[in-house]
């Protein structure tokens, strides 16, 4: 039997789950079992856990459906546990180094106790000093093992379940489990305190609780706050059944109703049914109030007396100041120009247009990427939706005929942004844009993250300086309702990089649909448009942006590469879109032998990928999209160590590449000259890469988005993702010629 069973619910925290599991497995004290609780096999968290389970036999996952909630997940973990003591760790929290050793040493000192309370840190998600709220609660506890009567303040109400180790046999004997509903820690902690015979305290931090940017789910508005009344009723009913009296009962009652009154006094937590909440709380107060209970002093005491008499009108008047503060109106945005500001303000007073959608790609660079693919599918499946694409003034001429557009900064731009119900972007709308109630913002993203993104960039000075205000970034994230993902890796990294309350749509990237819907004629047409000679092997060279450089450098002598790689090789040079010069070329490759074709200004990266027989890139996210075509990919990693140090990455690309890795120009030319870029070994690397990063792209991503978001179809009727083995991407031109 292991000393500890550590139970880790994982619902909604897949992006940070690996940190929690790593913190457990890195403990020097190794006598434990680790029980992650996942939604179901194949879920996002289950994929993370599976990797840990393969590496360490102490990891034993169990499953609990999301509908069972946190209580169901923890109870499932308890049923599977075999350890002497149970620890509960939230999926986005961590054990501090040496925590288990300190727990073991303390339990050795005290002997078997039913509960060992310990301290924890609450760490702000961004800035600020950690706090230790448990230290004050535990400060007046006796030194050794003690009975609950010696420390009546330890009612279990003020400490979360993950701030104590519980003897498994004790919980089993008294049939203590987590009660259903929200605020389950309150009910569980109270039941534990009521039944415990011997208790001890460890005055040391064991768990580091990572405060979410969104705050606790329990602080959000909603009907779930009525569950707090259920937990209070449960705890006080059990206390009465056990005949609890005196200081322990007074402490339990006082702490429970301090929490109840805190909710009643915050209107934002109960946007509706406040009177019903107050009336029910008043009934519970009168039913359970201990004889001789001493009402607290000050404002809290006044609230107690009003609750006892059921005086809701007086209670509402007492909280008037807070109520007024909660109604403070956010300042209106300030577009440039007084007339524009006034026009935008007037438009914001008008109702939303339920059939208006606004799209934007790459900060207005034109009709492109995921927004364009969604727009095209919406015209087909939701023709009642009127669409407007936003573009910069110098890109208006690139918008295809028949597509309505507005120039960024114009009066119409602000008008449609104010009135649109649907707003679709692969980057972000301007800070001045208001998120109106009822509007739906769809963040499509424009790549799979290899490099650090969002707030994860904060520890990389060069990138952080260019990012600007992280507060502004998070303000934009708060407008998102949906965020698209093309693979589980992205889902997890977006959760970390862009903390918010949006919903992940694991539907794939709409722009990649074309890789499965295009035909051989489309491939031939694009190659002809780009000027690829017949019979040539077109190698797409797409290096990414370097944050530590001020301009574009190819990083490779492309003419020399063509000469060394073979006489049939031509290069399609596509610089990062930061360096698009409006079709003027100038990227160090046009001209010369004519074997270098600059396609940077070609708006559609999907067209360029269709035309290419193989891809050479360094660390660009284009590799993840191109992998859907199942064509050869070569990584040219001449400065990987520098890039990783200055930009930050989420995984080691060189350990899991999509094909051969070349570190020098000579190595790169050789893999093409000898054909190894397209041989079996390369195919095996690409197959593993595709299995990890091509999970959701199957040709129907745009359809899923339109059906779910624009047509309001429920998730269960959305077309499922086709298994990878059943997908058939359009073949490369060379394959078609051989066929």
What does this 3D model show about the protein?
This protein is of the alpha/beta class and 739 residues long. The chain is built from 29 helices and 21 strands. The chain has an 8-stranded mixed β-sheet, sandwiched between helices. A 7-stranded parallel β-sheet has the order 11-10-9-12-13-14-15, sandwiched between helices. Helix 7 packs parallel to helix 8 (226-241), helix 8 runs parallel beside helix 10 (274-288) and helix 14 packs parallel to helix 16. The model is unreliable at 321-333 and 578-591 (pLDDT under 50).
The helix tally amounts to: 29
The gross shape turns out to be: globular
If you compute it from the alpha carbons, what radius of gyration comes out, rounded to the nearest whole angstrom? 30 Å
Strand content: 5-15%
Question: Largest sheet at a glance?
Answer: 8 strands, mixed
What's the end-to-end separation, in Å? Answer: 62 Å
Which structural class best describes the helix and strand composition? Answer: alpha/beta
Q: Report low-confidence residues grouped into runs of 5 or more.
A: 321-333, 578-591
Q: What is the helix fraction of residues, given as a range?
A: 25-40%
Give the mean pLDDT. 89
How many E strands? 21
Strand order, largest beta sheet: 3-2-1-4-7-6-8-5
Structure keywords:
alpha/beta; 21 strands; 739 residues; 14% strand; 7-stranded parallel sheet; 8-stranded mixed sheet; globular
């Amino acid at each position: 039997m292991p000393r500890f069973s550590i139970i880790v619910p994982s619902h909604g925290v897949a992006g940070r789950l690996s940190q929690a599991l790593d913190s457990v497995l890195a403990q020097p004290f190794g006598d434990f079992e680790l029980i992650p609780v996942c939604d179901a096999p194949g879920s996002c968290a289950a994929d993370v856990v599976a990797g840990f389970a393969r590496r360490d036999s102490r990891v034993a996952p169990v499953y609990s459906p999301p509908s069972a909630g946190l209580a169901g997940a923890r109870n499932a973990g308890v049923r599977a546990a075999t350890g002497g003591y149970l620890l509960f760790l939230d999926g986005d929290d961590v054990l501090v180094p040496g925590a288990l050793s300190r727990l073991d040493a303390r339990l050795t000192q005290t002997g078997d106790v039913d509960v060992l309370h310990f301290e924890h840190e609450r760490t702000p998600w961004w800035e600020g000093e950690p706090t230790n709220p448990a230290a004050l609660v535990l400060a007046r506890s006796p030194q050794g093992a003690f009975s609950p009567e010696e420390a009546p303040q330890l009612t279990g109400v003020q400490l979360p379940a993950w701030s104590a180790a519980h003897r498994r046999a004790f919980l089993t004997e008294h049939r203590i489990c987590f009660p259903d509903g929200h605020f389950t820690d309150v009910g569980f902690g109270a039941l534990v305190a009521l039944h415990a015979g011997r208790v001890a305290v460890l005055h040391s931090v064991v768990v580091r609780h990572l405060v979410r940017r969104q705050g606790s789910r329990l602080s959000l508005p909603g009907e779930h706050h009525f569950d707090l009344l259920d937990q209070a009723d449960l705890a006080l009913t059990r206390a009465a059944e056990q005949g609890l009296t005196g200081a322990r009962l007074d402490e339990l009652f006082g702490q429970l109703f301090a929490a109840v009154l805190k909710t009643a006094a915050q209107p934002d937590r109960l946007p509706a049914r406040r009177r019903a909440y107050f009336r029910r709380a008043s009934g519970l107060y009168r039913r359970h109030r201990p004889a001789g209970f001493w009402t607290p002093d000050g404002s809290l005491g006044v609230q107690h007396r009003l609750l006892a008499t059921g005086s809701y009108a007086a209670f509402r008047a007492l909280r008037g100041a807070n109520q007024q503060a909660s109604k403070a109106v956010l300042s209106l945005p300030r577009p440039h120009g007084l007339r524009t500001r006034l026009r935008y303000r007037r438009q914001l007073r008008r109702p939303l247009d339920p059939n208006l959608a606004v799209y934007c790609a790459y900060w207005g660079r034109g009709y492109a990427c995921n927004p364009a693919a969604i727009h095209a599918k919406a015209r087909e499946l939701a023709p009642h939706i009127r669409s407007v694409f936003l573009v910069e003034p110098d890109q208006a001429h690139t918008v295809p005929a028949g597509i309505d557009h507005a120039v960024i900064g114009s009066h119409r731009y602000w008008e449609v942004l104010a009135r649109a119900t649907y707003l679709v972007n692969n980057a972000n709308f301007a800070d001045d844009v208001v998120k109106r109630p009822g509007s739906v913002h769809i963040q499509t993203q424009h790549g799979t993250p290899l490099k650090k993104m969002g707030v994860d960039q904060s520890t990389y000075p060069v990138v952080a300086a260019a990012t600007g205000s992280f507060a502004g970034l998070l303000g934009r994230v708060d407008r998102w309702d949906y965020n698209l993902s093309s693979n589980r890796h992205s889902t997890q990294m977006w959760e970390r990089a862009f903390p918010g309350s949006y919903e992940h749509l694991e539907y794939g990237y709409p722009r990649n649909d074309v890789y499965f819907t295009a035909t051989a004629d489309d491939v031939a047409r694009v190659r002809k448009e780009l000027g690829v000679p017949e019979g040539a092997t077109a190698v797409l060279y797409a290096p990414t942006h370097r944050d530590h450089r001020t301009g574009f450098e190819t990083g490779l002598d492309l003419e020399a590469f063509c000469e060394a790689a073979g006489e049939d090789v031509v290069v399609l040079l596509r610089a990062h879109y930061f360096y698009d010069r409006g079709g003027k070329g100038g990227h160090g490759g046009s001209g010369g032998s004519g074997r270098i074709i600059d396609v940077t200004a070609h708006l559609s990266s999907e067209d360029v990928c269709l035309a290419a027989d193989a891809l050479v890139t360094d660390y660009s996210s284009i590799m993840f999209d191109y992998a859907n075509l199942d064509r050869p990919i070569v990584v040219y990693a001449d400065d990987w160590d520098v890039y990783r140090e200055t930009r930050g990455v989420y995984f080691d690309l060189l350990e899991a590449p999509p094909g051969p890795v070349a570190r020098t120009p000579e190595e790169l030319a050789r893999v093409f000259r000898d054909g190894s870029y397209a041989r079996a070994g390369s195919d095996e690397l690409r197959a593993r890469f595709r299995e990890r990063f091509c999970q959701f792209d199957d040709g129907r991503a745009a359809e899923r988005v339109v059906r779910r978001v624009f047509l309001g179809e429920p998730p269960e009727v959305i077309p499922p993702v086709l298994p990878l083995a059943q997908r058939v991407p359009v073949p490369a031109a060379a394959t078609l010629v051989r066929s």
